[in-house]
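Standup, Tuesday
Yesterday: got the pipeline producing structure tokens again.
Today: sanity-check two examples.
Blockers: none.

Example 1:
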Amino acid sequence: MAKSAGSFKPGVSGNPKGKAPGTSHRAKFRAMVNPDLPDIVKNLVTAAKNGDMQAVRIVMDRLIPQLKPTSDAIDLRTTGSLAKRGEAIIAAMSSGRVSPDQAQIAMNTLTAQAKLVEQSEILHRLDQLETLLCPTAKP
């Protein structure tokens, strides 16, 4: 409902159903271009082949998906504390057994594990304190 000043009350939309699907400018443009899209792409690729650097950039950026780095599984079977495992990851990277990217992923995983261990220990200690302070509160 509109106020007398012409604006709507807070939380009340002037169009509760929203914009109808397919009525945006983007949807209209796509509908208009869609029938000619194969020819547009063909012409763009031809221009790129003929040395048009802008066309090359468009083809590379929009038509060919960007390559993402991949990494093989790494075997870092280590036991001991989280610190020892971190040292093993650094040693593996230093010796060239794993790439720096793989080492970073492994260290990030180790850091996440450390946070989980820390939270688990804090919850355990909190439960112990609650039991000591309020022995009848918990069954």
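Example 2:
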Amino acid sequence: MLRRVVMPIVILLILVAALLFTISWFNKLGLELEGLNVVVFKDPFCGCCEEYTKYLKGLGARVDVSNVPSIESKLREFQVPESLWSCHITLVGGYIVVGHVPAEAIEKLLRDKPPIKGISLPGMPSGSPGMPGYKMGPFTIYSFNNKGGVDVYMVI
């Protein structure tokens, strides 16, 4: 009888401890976007873009999704260099974030506030946030400015 009562409580405590450990592990990595307001422009039928919005929400961001008929026209509107294009655009803290950029790069961008227009992880690399598969190598995040200049921002 006592075992029937104690065992579920022990299991519950283990699950709570695992959840708290996971949350603290993400926080140690700096992967928290709690309360951050972001807007994601995406194709309404793009599954990986939807997964990326879930990724941002999972880190605490408040995500407003704007489905657009042509992401290419939005990329041109925001004057993102073509070499940095991807399948969606995120506006955050006055910056443009293009593609499946990991939270680590977004946090660095918002913390350092560099004099750039935005950052990008071009294409749709396997294993990046929102993309299926395994990470095959380092992700090179590029910065771009208002004059079309492109530089390496960071490598993750």
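Quick observation on example 2: The CA atoms of residues 142 and 152 lie 4 Å apart. The chain is about 35% helix and 25% strand.
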